[in-house]
Amino acid sequence: MTSYLRDTARSLGLTAADKHAAESVLGREHRLTRAVSYQHTLALQSTVAGLAALSGGAGLLLDFGVATLLVVVGTVVAMSFVVAWAVTRRVTRERAQDLIAAGDDSVVVSVLARERRRLTSRKERERLASSLEALYRDALRWYEILPRFRPPQGVLQLRHTGPEVEGLTQALRRDRVRVQGVALTARFLSDGYASPLYGNELEPLREELNRIRYLLETSETAVDAPVAERVAA
Description:
By secondary structure, the protein is an all-alpha fold. Helices cover 67% and strands 2% of the residues. It has 2 domains: 2-115; 121-222, no CATH class.
């Protein structure tokens, strides 16, 4: 139980362990290090503001005159910090995915190990496969969708890549995958106009789908295999 709570606190950024490890391995100026550092700072600020709101709640029970103001201010500030923390947590995840997608397995710190485990989980791979299939279906029925509800224009090109989409989604659902390919799929779907998915050009889109599938199937590892973790002191 103690180990679970410690790991949870670390993953939420409540401890400085991930920050120190990233600084040791990647350096302070690396994008992932900065994201982890911001997440840690915002996690602490959210906690302090939440405790202030709880203190105000206790003051209400004791009928302190300023308790209501303390509760309101503390709650607003805590919510602001939580929203900022959630955004930073997403950025941290994206920066970790960038490193994994680059295929550099020599960089292994706890934040990367956790993201590798998440990416290779069946739940996450199914989510990615289903998201790609949903976009493909949208491309096929593009002119049946009201313009304001359509995905970005580039998604329309998916209608010409049926075999590639099917091959990629099948690869994602296999028992053995390469985590680099899963990370590339995640970035492919969420990297905005930097991704060939939204570039409105067919050949780069087709090439990327084939490349990701190849990397999913190359040097395969069991999805449930433990990920080696080297944590810097």
